[in-house]
Design a protein that fits this description.
With 575 residues, this protein is of the alpha/beta class. Helices cover 38% and strands 15% of the residues. α4 crosses α21, α8 packs parallel to α9 and α11 runs antiparallel to α12.
Length: 575
């Protein structure tokens, strides 16, 4: 399959890359000495970008020649749908500017995110996901125009979806949905979250909506939801989910329709729904992050504490599931004691909190939703003394890089992995929290009697003539629209979008256990149904949860997992 000049031009790739390929072709003696390897990357969002940056860095100064085909049907290669530059500016990251540390490759002309900005950056503000998407696409352009020119790499983006991946002689055959085929030595899957089968609840609601004239909608793309919401004036709208995505949905139902927030509260435009009812299983909104760097510094571990945690985490990953919790808790305890000593919090209280968290993550937060929201705002603003849970969560957030570095290459047994993953996931209510401004907006919408949390905690939902009835403790509310703001769990059994179901049925893609996602080696190589590595077939991202941890972080896309994959490619192609 020859590379054509038009392939590079239509994808916005530098002509320098084309010329590099042309010079290599004109050197037949060199062609005989160095075999050209072929790699396919399936899906090209931030994780695929991070992987190729890592590979390009390792190829500088080598004689290796590689042809890379990137299969990405979306309009924003390198950013992907989650960071599409076309998404509304009100969809915010949950990382403040001061904490964005997506390290650019050495020699990058784009630089760090803050350097790339064309205006002064408030370190305590939270950028939009669209803004991050534009940065990622600038990184992509720099990689294609400059990063690969120092190597023997040629690369093209194919605007196509992949229908099937199957074994071929000494490699893999990739077939696109149009029917075209190509053979590769290596295939990397960086698909993000593929399509999954509708859960029973949502499938039933979708069918009822079609029969009754009610509506169901998805949180994303946010621009599409905003257009749908323009017809919901005066309606009652429910939102399934009370996590980070819910804040984007709320802005799409308010700010996007002309409303505005200020220090007084929310000022309606009159085009909003008349009532918005978010709900979830536990009804708890996540706790906001500390409002500024000065307050956030209170939760900084010392270098010595971080080194001790890294050692404890490595030991926990390699031990039995019943022994792992105490190793992690013993590393957390002295840090939390040090931070909370001025509040006269005893070590015994912290130990009890950690024990309860390991036993049933998240269960010890039992306050009503509105009380939880107000308390979270006070905690993030520093208006009340930090609680044990809030302190543990912020320390855990600051240890995410060390946590991934310990867990991801550790090959934990499934039982230990499950125990540790549950603890990490439970702490996300603190460590992955929204901006304080988002929590205050939710409170302002409640004060304006536009949002109601009375039905937030696992309501009973039944069909009605106009839509659905939500019931909690004898109280009922009618809605005619439900918006889904819940991200599907990374469960392999529910995936319906090609090419993964076919790989699963063939045994090339297999879960680590019944309640964890794909089994992979530290470099991303898939482990088949028999537990053996599947040569040349790799996967990075949230569909490997259990083999890796903290997969929903943007920083993870540009971290050590990408480095290990890139080094694995070099090692395999050199063998």
């Amino acid at each position: 399959m020859p590379f054509l000049l038009r392939d590079f031009v239509t994808c916005g790739l530098s002509l320098a890359v084309v010329r590099l390929y042309g010079r290599a072709k004109d050197m037949p003696g060199r062609e005989m000495q160095v075999k050209t390897a072929r790699i396919a990357v399936i899906g090209f969002g931030p994780r695929g970008l991070g992987a190729l940056e890592a590979l390009a860095h390792r190829l500088i100064g080598t004689e290796r020649r590689i042809e890379i085909d990137i299969y990405e049907p979306g309009p924003h290669p390198g950013a992907g749908p989650n960071f599409a530059p076309s998404e509304p500016a009100y969809c915010l990251l949950n990382i403040p500017n001061r904490d964005i540390a997506i390290r650019p490759p050495k020699g990058s002309r784009v630089g760090h995110f803050a350097q790339w900005q064309d205006r002064p950056v408030d370190p305590d503000s939270f950028p939009s996901r669209a803004e991050m998407g534009r940065y990622l696409m600038a990184r992509r352009d720099d990689l294609f125009a400059q990063g690969f020119t120092k190597t023997g790499v040629t690369c093209r983006v194919l605007p196509a979806s992949v229908a099937r991946i199957s074994p071929a002689a000494s490699g893999w055959r990739v077939q696109s949905e149009s029917g075209s085929e190509a053979r590769y030595d290596e295939v990397l899957l960086t698909l993000g979250q593929p399509s999954v089968a509708l859960d029973a609840q949502w499938a039933e609601w979708q069918e009822h909506a079609a029969r009754s004239g009610a509506e169901v909608a998805q949180a994303y793309p946010a621009a599409k939801l905003r257009a749908q919401a323009a017809t919901w004036q005066g309606k009652h709208v429910a939102i399934r989910g009370l996590g980070l995505s819910t804040y984007d949905v709320l802005r799409g139902l308010t700010m996007a329709l002309g409303g505005r927030f200020d220090t007084v509260g929310y000022h309606a435009s009159g085009r909003e729904p008349s009532r918005i009812l978010p709900f979830s299983l536990n009804g708890h909104p996540p706790f906001p992050k500390p409002q500024n760097a000065a307050f956030d510094a209170l939760f900084d571990p010392t270098p010595e504490e971080t080194a001790g945690f890294s050692q404890a985490a490595i030991a926990a990953v390699g031990t039995r599931p019943e022994a792992a919790p105490s190793l992690i808790s013993d590393a957390l305890l002295p840090v939390v004691v040090r931070i909370l000593t001025p509040q006269n919090v005893r070590a015994e209280q912290i130990e009890n909190w950690l024990d309860a968290e390991w036993s049933d993550p998240g269960a010890q937060d039992q306050s009503p939703p509105l009380e939880t929201l107000r308390h979270g705002i006070d905690l993030a603003a520093g208006e009340v003394a930090p609680s044990i849970g809030y302190t543990v969560g912020q320390v855990w957030r600051k240890w995410q890089d060390a946590w991934r570095a310990a867990f991801n290459p550790g090959n934990a047994c499934p039982q230990t992995a499950k125990r540790l993953i549950d603890f990490d996931e439970g702490l996300k209510r603190y460590s992955y929290g929204p901006p304080l401004s988002s929590a205050r907006e939710l409170l302002a919408l409640i004060d304006a009697e536009l949002v109601d949390l009375s039905f937030a905690t696992n309501p009973e939902i039944t069909n009605s003539a106009q839509g659905w009835t939500l019931q909690v403790e004898g109280h009922a509310a009618e809605v005619s629209v439900i918006v889904d703001a819940v991200l599907p769990a990374p469960n392999l059994s529910g995936i319906v979008g090609p090419p993964l179901p076919d790989l699963i049925s063939q045994g090339f893609l297999s879960p680590l256990s019944s309640d964890l996602a794909a089994a992979t080696a530290p470099d991303g190589t898939l482990r088949g149904r028999d537990g053996r590595p599947v040569p040349g077939l790799c996967l990075l991202g949230r569909l490997a949860l259990g083999s890796v941890t903290a997969v929903d972080s943007l920083h993870d896309c540009f971290g050590q997992s990408a480095d290990r994959w890139a080094q694995g490619v070099i090692d395999r192609l050199s063998g």
